[in-house]
Amino acid sequence: MSWPRFGVIMIHDEADHIVSLVEKMAAHGEWHPIVGFSEDPAPRQIVQAVLDGAVEYVAWPVPAGELKDTLARAIEKTEAVGNTKLREVMARSRLERLTKRERQVLDGVANGLSNRLIGEKLAISPRTVEIHRANMLNKLGANHSSEAIRIAIEAALIH
């Protein structure tokens, strides 16, 4: 599959199509603004689509003028947040490689805890924390804990 250099992707909001598209873009290091659409969408469906990665949403069928305005807003948002969104998508993709325990260790590291304190919190030895920490850094492609924390922040998991 080849990705376009620029543009907006309109996708019918069914099942997990938006999530799946975001995952595929992340796997390819790409990000394009997504406009979701469906027939008579419920407010909750629209909110979920935006949380999943859509930058705009329209009810289908959509009048031509409204569609033009929606696409223009999506392009404006891309110019404003495109690079940030790409970094977020890439960071989320990296974090998905972590086990639950490695995520817990990353959370402890991000909160400034030592290996001993993380171990006490998780009821494991400090040596086991070190192993999980090393595995976490390796999977994230990070050389230092500060890089791992940056990746977590970019993924919007730590605020």
Please describe what this structure looks like.
Residues 91-156 form the HTH luxR-type domain. Pfam families: GerE. This is LuxR C-terminal-related transcriptional regulator. Keywords: DNA-binding, Transcription, Transcription regulation. The protein is mainly α and 159 residues long. It has two domains: 9-89, 3-Layer(aba) Sandwich (Rossmann fold); 100-154, Winged helix-like DNA-binding domain superfamily/Winged helix DNA-binding domain (Arc Repressor Mutant, subunit A, Orthogonal Bundle), CATH 1.10.10.10. 61% of the residues lie in helices and 8% in strands. It contains seven helices and three strands, in the order βαβαβααααα. The protein has helices at residues 17-27, 43-52, 64-95, 100-110, 115-122, 126-140, 145-154, and strands at 9-12, 34-38, 56-59. It has a three-stranded parallel beta sheet with strand order 1-2-3, with helices on both faces. α2 links the parallel β2 (34-38) and β3. α6 packs across α7 (145-154). It is elongated, with a radius of gyration of 19 Å. The two termini are 35 Å apart. The mean pLDDT is 88.
Unreliable residue runs: none
Principal-axis shape equals: elongated
Please work out how many helical segments DSSP would assign: 7
CATH third-tier fold name of the largest domain? Rossmann fold
Q: On the 0-100 scale, what is the average pLDDT?
A: 88
Fraction of residues in β-strands = 5-15%
- As for the number of domains, it is 2
Spatial order of strands in the largest sheet = 1-2-3
CATH superfamily of the largest domain: Response regulator
Number of strands: 3
CATH arch. level architecture of the largest domain: 3-Layer(aba) Sandwich
